[in-house]
């Protein structure tokens, strides 16, 4: 069955949110005489690369990522290409594209994902678009951008709309190679018991023909 890996490669030099922790990888044990294994130490932000935001990230009373319901991160999804637009993604860009949509929506905003540089002016998601997705039954929104809200935002209106509608968030997806359409999403976050987010290995899998036909 066809798979698409939509995860960033976590590596030294991976772009991170300005001021956040840079990724570091150190070999602390090395395979050789007297040592039978290689072992590394990692230093990273919980928001490194492709990751899931926990409610705790934007709500002081929210759940940590280790306690969230996993159901939103696994199941049918719809990938929608909004690369033709500019500025925040508005509800009108989804007009006619949410009919019979599964409860997980992924939005592709980059024509080419910026693997090697930080893009300040990424396309955020208007809070009205979050409300539109919630009204269509969405339980998860995933984006290729590093955040639902603009880099300079202090009120995080899109994240707040997610909180009100009890949705899950994936950020930093790599969607360049995937055509628009419906897929199975597999993107389970690490079970970090008290953390505000966690890296994920995000995969799309082609749906069986019967599922795509509505069975």
From TrEMBL:
Quote the catalytic activity from the record. N-formyl-L-kynurenine + H2O = L-kynurenine + formate + H(+)
The cofactors it requires, by name, are: Zn(2+)
GO annotations under biological process? L-tryptophan catabolic process to kynurenine
Where along this sequence does the record place binding of Zn(2+) 1? 47, 51, 53, 171
Keywords, A to Z, come to: Hydrolase, Metal-binding, Tryptophan catabolism, Zinc
Q: Indicate which residues the UniProt annotation says bind Zn(2+) 2.
A: 53, 159, 171
- Cofactor binding summary note: Binds 2 zinc ions per subunit.
Stretches assigned to coiled coil: none
A single Gene Ontology MF term assigned here is: zinc ion binding
Q: Name one Pfam family in it.
A: Cyclase
EC number of the protein: 3.5.1.9
Functional pathway? Amino-acid degradation; L-tryptophan degradation via kynurenine pathway; L-kynurenine from L-tryptophan: step 2/2
Q: Which residues bind substrate?
A: 17
Q: Where is the active site?
A: 57 (proton donor/acceptor)
Annotated function: Catalyzes the hydrolysis of N-formyl-L-kynurenine to L-kynurenine, the second step in the kynurenine pathway of tryptophan degradation.
Q: Which family does it belong to?
A: Belongs to the Cyclase 1 superfamily. KynB family.
Q: How does it assemble?
A: Homodimer.
The protein in question is named Kynurenine formamidase
